[in-house]
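During data preparation, a discrete fold description was generated, as reproduced here:
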Amino acid sequence: MPPLAHVLAGFTLGFTFRKELGRVLRETRPDSSIASLDPARLAADGIAALALDFDGVLAPHGFPAPLPEAREWLTRCSAVFGADRIFILSNKPTEARKAWFGEHFPGIRFISGVRKKPYPDGLQKVQELAHVPLSAILMVDDRLLTGCLAALNTGARPLYIRRPYRSFRHRPLAELFFALLRAGERFFL
């Protein structure tokens, strides 16, 4: 696959799903973060499996492990869904992150070896491994044109994190780039 093909797919699919993405954006609270999500409420709403982005959702960009509050949330999610129904679907699944999860949350699996979001491959793999319908999978992402778009494209449910974890002190250029990218996505819609 050509480099950055997923970026072109994001814009193409984003145009196709622009109304649905606009609805996701409008329905998202400005202060949304994973810490504000109640796993029991998600399960009551029909969610049976979670697909989580890493950067911005569990920790700032480039961090090797989730932040303490994200760890606590993952513990609560594991109690509700079972760790075997929680997946990390990141376009940057580093070995350090995989090792950390292997030590602290061994049941949570990384989805790798698939095309990057917004392609449907990752969520289809989650469906296959979790043995649940796509409509019962919640894709949690801080990007509209990657994870949220992948969810809409496959029939999974998107949850947009409007207040992602950031650390301008640790990675100022990366965080600035992604802040501008998120703002551009919102402007696009």
